[in-house]
Design goal:
Length: 271
């Protein structure tokens, strides 16, 4: 008997405007645990705004976002305080276009800083002892080494960002997101700031994260990568989901005229 699919993310009727320009128009979709969702579309179509609304870096105007039955945002409830927002954001790990590493810290400290701060906060909230916190720090450090090995950077743990290539810095950013164990790992054009020769190494790391336990959302302009890695594709144009389906459906049999036009302009799509 097949295991029942678990809906991990539910987005309902999401809207967002900037200065009277509606950037997201009633966006709705679901994502199951272990799925990889690729969001594609032309620049300015709303892809990054959607990703930032999910992460609550931008607060939507309308709609509802639910992760594992926890309501992240609901316009019917109203504004949340900053403490609640920080807690809600932990459901997501976001890897930006720019690497956003702290230049004054080495790779290892960049990776462990947020995890240690969170552990300290939780230890205080739960009335833990200094010994409890020490053990948690040791666990985090051990996990950091394992994650760095997973992304091929264990030998660089004492290096500083300025000593790394762009591809290596982006892999550190991915490792930093992983160590917080988000429900959903998000990538916002993760290779757009990289030279072409460095793009492949980052895409291979992301592809290697694909598993039943890792749910991912990837905003990307790498069409062949999206076709190969994603289990679901969303094409968004002018703030509207024009098409959603499997890679075979979206790439093999596009129905929307806007999607057909987008593919005709994309030299990366392989027919």
């Amino acid at each position: 008997m097949d295991n029942e699919k678990q809906v991990i993310l539910k987005v309902e009727d999401l809207c967002k405007s900037f200065d009277k320009e509606q950037v997201l128009k009633h966006v709705s979709f679901e994502l199951e645990k272990g799925e990889v969702l690729a969001i594609i579309g032309s620049s300015g179509g709303g892809k990054t705004t959607l990703l930032r609304c999910l992460n609550q870096l931008i607060i939507p105007d309308e709609g509802k976002i639910t992760v594992n039955d926890d309501v992240i945002y609901d316009s019917a409830i109203g504004k949340q305080n900053e403490k609640n927002l920080r807690t809600k954001r932990l459901h997501f790990g976001l890897v930006f276009q720019q690497f956003n590493l702290f230049p004054q810290y080495n790779v290892f400290n960049n990776l462990t800083l947020a995890a240690r701060l969170l552990a300290k906060e939780n230890n205080k909230k739960n009335g833990g002892s200094s010994e409890d916190l020490k053990k948690e720090y040791e666990r985090i450090d051990k996990e950091a080494e394992a994650i760095l090995e997973r992304v091929g950077l264990k030998e660089k743990m004492k290096a500083y960002p300025c000593e790394l290539s762009g591809g290596q810095q982006q892999r550190v950013a991915i490792a930093r997101a992983l160590i917080l164990h988000p429900n959903i790992l998000c990538f916002d054009e993760p290779t757009s700031a990289l030279d072409p020769e460095l793009t492949g190494e980052v895409l291979r790391v992301i592809e290697g994260l694909k598993s039943q336990d890792n749910t991912m959302i990837i905003v990307t302009h790498e069409m062949e990568f999206a076709r190969r890695v994603a289990s679901k594709i969303i094409f968004i144009a002018d703030g509207i989901i024009e098409e959603i389906g499997t890679p075979e459906e979206v790439f093999g049999n596009p129905k929307s005229e806007k999607l057909k036009s987008f593919f005709n302009k994309s030299v990366e799509v392989i027919s």
